[in-house]
Records
---
Amino acid sequence: MKNMPEFKRHRRLRSSAAMRSMVRETHISTDDLIYPLFILEGENTKNEVPSMPGVYQITMDILKEEVKEIHSLGIKSMILFGVPNEKDEHGTGAYIKDGIIQEATRVIKKEVPDMLVIADTCLCEYTSHGHCGVIHNQDVDNDESLALLAKTAVSQAEAGADIIAPSNMMDGFVTVIRKALDEAGFTNIPIMSYAVKYASSFYGPFRDAADSTPQFGDRKSYQMDPANRLEAMREAESDMQEGADFLIVKPALSYLDIVRDVKNKFNAPVVAYNVSGEYSMVKAAALNGWINEKELVLEKLTSMKRAGADLIITYFAKDVAKWLSE
Ligand code: PBG
């Protein structure tokens, strides 16, 4: 054996497609996908979001058809955002009985009862000032906003939502929502907490889609500083103690270290939110012919799962479901 090389031949396990699939460590499936939708009031309207080609705001009648298509692709859950006509200081549209998300939830559960409806629980789409809670002295009042969030969660559950996903980053939101849901008899409805949510420029296109840009200031007094890692652990820890059933990390792509940290430290399903700006960047490059969209998206989603995500909220969900079934 005198010519035995002194190195390891890693390429042996990459020699063919079959060999590579045999040793592949990470897989994406349609079970992992959560599809976000923007719901408009009125009827017969489908507006493409300019900064998000392929993403639409749709009215309830169009939603009826859309949910059947989503279901037929094998996607099992959706997260809903409302785009109401009327807004006010207190975000009333978020918690009224016939609010847009409440109505959309009823439509979906009637058309496709198996579809899991995740209600994003926040006020920013419904407040005239665009902030995620009630404003006092130019800042969002934490405790006053909590009561409205709890009310929103209960009205969403009453409408048939399967999972409540509070996203407004007020301290204590899991505690008050859990208590309110339990008191209203919804002890079996899980909370998917946006536990770790950074104040990110990657949300720009979403704010066009949901018409939720803050009218003054920014969200830095409640969303997290992108520079911080230990703070993410504190956020996730308190949400777990307060009773969160799922932990969301958002955005996903620039925060995969945080996804891994959360996965390693907490025993709960981890959800990566592949946010609007991450979508728009890929779309822009793809529309220019600069990248291979399918390969790139599948690589990104695989990376999120490799980092530890169990589930991924993504505007690419329908495309991915189609690609996976090819
Ligand atoms: C509501 C909310 C936002 C997103 C999800 N829920 C916007 C924000 O916090 O400004 C962003 C999602 C995306 O960018 O895709 N608070």
---
Amino acid sequence: MRDEEGAFTDPIYISRERRNEVTPPEAQSEMKRGMAAHSPEGIVDLRSDTITRPTAEMRRAMSAAEVGDDVYGEDPTVNRLEERAAEIFGKEGALFVPTGCMGNLIAIKIWTHHGDEVICEERSHVNLYELASMSAIAGCMPRVARGEDGILSWPAIEAVIRPKIYYDSQSALLCLENTSNMTGGIVYPTKVVEELCGRAHEAGLKVHLDGARIFNAAVALGESVAQMTRRVDSVMFCLSKGLGAPVGSMLAGSRAFIEKARVYRKMFGGGMRQAGILAAAGLIAIEKSPLRLHEDHANAKLLAQGIAEIPRLELDPAKVRTNIIIFGCAKTGMTAVEFCEALKAQGVWAQDTAQYSVRLVTHCDVDRAGCQRALGVLRTVAGA
Ligand code: TLP
């Protein structure tokens, strides 16, 4: 719906300020996402690891960052971040992009032509949460396959590859997601990634990895991200999630891929100027934050084990190996939105991800005591 000036009035389209202006408080429980800009004292905010705030060290590095105009390639801090990311991933080049969504879109744009199909898991971020940008902007169709716990197998992929006939749209790209967010932070075994890349390449497909949380996967596997992404054609990872940087993601791949990525980043409005201010935090995020992710995983395990003991909540704790927990709440008689509202009333913030499923994400801004508190509130709300 739009008002007489053409502005959207539907609550999902309007800013938080305007939303409060136009939405009566009793209707606000309908609006699920992004209700608060930061977690005030006493709140245990487990909605996402995107809410993490920069550390004091990051803030110091940001204020002291050497900067230049990155559109001219003259920002030394951005250049350093890109070199380090390429080195860590064992790729020829890397590019700093404002968001994970833009990184994925750039890769999709590079590897496809208008009218192509992109094979991805049904519950993947590129399919569900990127506003259909692969269609709206890159001109592609998502062609979904289902994998057990989000992990695709070759037979599932092969079944949706289009025959090479001129009157069919063509499969151009396979997009994998590691960890798989909406199935509870599930990790792709590297052997599976390698097999899928080998088969996809034989079938003439490129492979892009949405590695928003690849460092969480690396910690769970005890492997290096270079080893894990050796065979993918491009990888995107986020600095601004569990790694704690305030803004930014990276794309890594061949030199030729990164040259094209630079062009599309500018075309999509992502050419930033003195971005070294942000890259300075990113450098700390890639060097230091992976070293503490095991703490988030241990906290997630604690939550998972506690949740599994709550009779009306459904979860297999053995599957929780990284920082995401997704549990079912149908047996409580509440929808996920209602359940999250009830948690929120007691200072614990969670995210509904489907009608009866709730997500908790552990991160550096919630400690063990916070997780224990969250468990107590979960027990109360679930009536245990
Ligand atoms: N994920 C967010 C939401 O958008 C769902 C979250 O809270 O988990 N790939 C994956 C796998 C992601 O989880 C996300 C963000 C992105 C890409 C996009 O990153 P940004 O938010 O930087 O555009």
